[in-house]
Amino acid sequence: MPDQPILVTGATGKSGSRVVRQLRAKGLPVRAAARGGEHVFDWTDSGTWDAALEGARSAYLVQLDGTKLVRPFVELAVKHGLQRIVLASGRGLDDPGYATDTTGMLDGLLDSEAAVRESGLEWTISRPGWFAQNFSEGFFADAVRAGEIRLPAGDGAASFIDAEDIAAVVVAALTEDGHSGQVYEVSGGEAVTMAQAVATISEAAGREIRYVPLEVEDFIAEMVEQGLSRDDAQAYADMVEPIRKGTDAYLSDGVQRALGRPPRTFAEFARSTAEEGGWAV
């Protein structure tokens, strides 16, 4: 029914917040759920799950990395009469050489995908690569504003995906027919190196930003000096590995298949972010 809310978990995150905004722009009822959001929802507190699902007809699930909580949540969703699920997953799951996984994240993602496939509900899986917004509101944002990014990414490239496109694919899958049973790997339309990305941001922001490539051990040492544990610093370096190795450089057709148009370019992302004051110092 049109008055049934669409549940969006992770509603304050990079993709979830945009899904909420795009759904509301269509005049659709949304239950924006997050630990600190409009509707309190916590993956680690199953006592918040029933209220999130009550009366919902479809849901966007942004899972908690390294956990296997999607499966029991989906089982509960079936009991609540949910009809459709869109799951946020990860790119490169079919490539055993994509990245080093020291956190158990891969097992969690695979279990979550299996859970929605086996649920009996209408399901769609979104597998985004590196978010372009990591430069403006994620891992690299503070470094961009400070004017220097120091990473063990070498001269490898990634096909950064604009989170606006991720959200548009999710919204289509939540609200339109024809997306059930689809796995949408989404990327930008071009692969760019960190040096190219930083140069593009510098031009859009109107100030110089430098990229300094580091060796992995040097990066870990810097992170430890800044207060991270060695394990966390290693996990950060592992996260950057797909850029360094170029395993995230390939292009995916998910945006084109889901929306019938090409994805936004990194330059378009950079310009729009600068116009919105996203890199103001």
UniProtKB/TrEMBL annotation:
InterPro entries: Ergot_Alk_Oxidoreductase (IPR051604), NAD(P)-bd_dom (IPR016040), NAD(P)-bd_dom_sf (IPR036291). Gene3D superfamilies: NAD(P)-binding Rossmann-like Domain, UDP-galactose 4-epimerase, domain 1. Signal peptide: none annotated. Residues 10-176 form the NAD(P)-binding domain. It holds the Pfam family NAD_binding_10. PANTHER family: PRESTALK A DIFFERENTIATION PROTEIN A (PTHR43162:SF1), PTHR43162. This is NmrA family protein. It comes from Actinosynnema mirum (strain ATCC 29888 / DSM 43827 / JCM 3225 / NBRC 14064 / NCIMB 13271 / NRRL B-12336 / IMRU 3971 / 101). The lineage of its organism: Bacteria, Bacillati, Actinomycetota, Actinomycetes, Pseudonocardiales.
